[in-house]
Amino acid sequence: MSIPIQWTPTHGEPYRPVPYRPERMPAAESLARAAELRERMGRRRTVRQFSADPVPEQVVRDAIACAATAPSGAHQQPWTFVLVKDAEVRRSIRRAAEEEERISYDGRLGEEWLAALRPLGTDEVKPHLTDAPALIVVFQQRYWLGEDGGRRKHYYVDESVGIAVGMLLSALHLSGLAALVHTPSPMRFLSEVLGRPANEKAFAVIPVGYPARDCRVPDLVRKTLEQVLVEV
């Protein structure tokens, strides 16, 4: 498993602005792109049935690179993306996840939460963790940890990592891949299986691949723009 290159955050340094003058897109082109993006994103679905067919690894790496451009509190970029391709490691993650999920579905979740999940057809069995050819395990860095043991607090970690995951899902979908956000609770086992440092806390497991040929998704209806948009 590759180890990220140590990165030292800027801290207490003076403000040094640089010019930013992107070329302004003509209104007609902007309208066309926005309409195309809306239509393509409207076809995005969460997939739980994956094909075992391999996916181009560079597509996944580029999607992660897109996610890493997300804005973050104080530009501290508090995220780590672990790309898991090894079949045995994926099996270990599935075993641990299903053990936690069995406890949850047997009562830890509570009836109200189970009722909310019922239309999705989910249960404690998680084949997507081994069927998908790759997993992206996203960790949030609660604080920066230097090689010398030094620490610095990170700010707005949940918000920053959440935005990055949203950008990751969009990049994967627009690149032709399917994904699922899986959040078994608790997720401490992910740090143990993947050997992550103490400053990292698991945020989500994202299986990535192509939908299985017999893939089915829940018959759900999204809210309309008029239902989610308030203009003042």
UniProtKB/TrEMBL annotation:
Q: Where is the Nitroreductase domain?
A: 43-210
Q: Which UniProt keywords apply?
A: Flavoprotein, FMN, Oxidoreductase
Please give the Gene Ontology molecular function terms for this protein: oxidoreductase activity
Which InterPro entries does the record match to this protein? Nitroreductase (IPR029479), Nitroreductase-like (IPR000415), Nitroreductase/BluB (IPR050627)
Q: Which PANTHER family match?
A: IODOTYROSINE DEIODINASE 1 (PTHR23026:SF90), NADPH NITROREDUCTASE (PTHR23026)
Q: What name appears for this protein in its UniProt entry?
A: Nitroreductase family protein
Native organism is Streptomyces triculaminicus
Lineage of the native species? Bacteria, Bacillati, Actinomycetota, Actinomycetes, Kitasatosporales
